[in-house]
Design brief:
The protein is α/β, with parallel strands linked by helices and 144 residues long. 22% of the residues lie in helices and 24% in strands.
């Protein structure tokens, strides 16, 4: 690596399973909202973010950033507003609109949370709740 010493390189290349070493990982999640209104979107967002952090033992300071995508039928509010209400005021967040694919799951909020963690990639629990469970049944571990 250009600009780093051999000592720095060995530290950054240490496997995640090594005692206390933290790495940057992504945690996926999705949930469906009951309606296109602020209360329903905020409730679904808070529920999803809460489950993602609880199941993966993530503290607020572990979160580097969060990307939200919403299906085109959800336009009443930004999910980041709900996250801010949870105290996530220093977490960078960004929103996107999903591609409007015919027949795709509607009223869906998807999340990609970037975190610093000591967990191995196989230990990360991706969280799919309610109607979004149909998106990735292969990743569902716990009950909703």
């Amino acid at each position: 690596m250009h600009g780093t010493s051999k000592e720095q390189q060995s530290t950054t290349q240490t496997p995640a399973g090594s005692a206390g070493v933290r790495v940057f990982r992504g945690i996926r999640g999705a949930i469906t909202a009951d309606a296109d209104d602020t209360a329903a979107i905020a409730y679904a967002t808070k529920r999803l973010l809460g489950e993602m952090t609880r199941r993966n033992q993530i503290e607020l300071d572990d979160i580097a950033s969060v990307l939200f995508s919403l299906t085109p039928d959800l336009r009443a509010c930004f999910p980041a507003l709900a996250a801010r209400e949870m105290g996530w005021v220093h977490v960078p967040m960004l929103h996107f609109s999903e591609v409007d694919v015919p027949g795709a799951l509607g009223r869906c909020i998807r999340v990609l949370m970037h975190v610093n963690t000591a967990r191995d990639a196989r230990e990360i629990e991706h969280v799919y709740l309610d109607g979004a469970r149909a998106l990735r049944p292969d990743l569902i571990r716990g009950a909703t």
